[in-house]
Task: inverse folding
């Protein structure tokens, strides 16, 4: 065999290897792109879940504080409340001379 035929065979081998490597690189890029898209959607879902949980906590806290405020507004407070909750004393009848 001559040197040119050996070189042409080597060239063909290298070209086929390059072709397979390019194909593999394309597959890796596509897989990477898919993985990034998946990670992005998962992150968005997690962010949305976190926001909804925070909104639920906030709504629960507001409801609790509103109930507390309503309880304060409904009746008398302090000494007036104590006086209102007292049991009435015995009724004493005084006779007035007529």
Result:
């Amino acid at each position: 065999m001559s040197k040119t035929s050996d070189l042409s065979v080597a060239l063909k081998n290298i070209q086929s290897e390059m072709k397979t490597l390019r194909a593999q690189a394309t597959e890796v890029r596509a897989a990477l792109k898919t993985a990034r898209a998946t990670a992005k959607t998962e992150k968005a879902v997690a962010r949305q879940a976190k926001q909804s949980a925070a909104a639920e906590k906030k709504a629960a806290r507001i409801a609790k504080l509103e109930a507390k405020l309503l309880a304060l507004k409904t009746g008398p407070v302090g000494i007036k409340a104590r006086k209102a909750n007292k049991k009435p004393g015995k009724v004493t009848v005084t006779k007035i001379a007529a």
The chain has a mean pLDDT of 89.
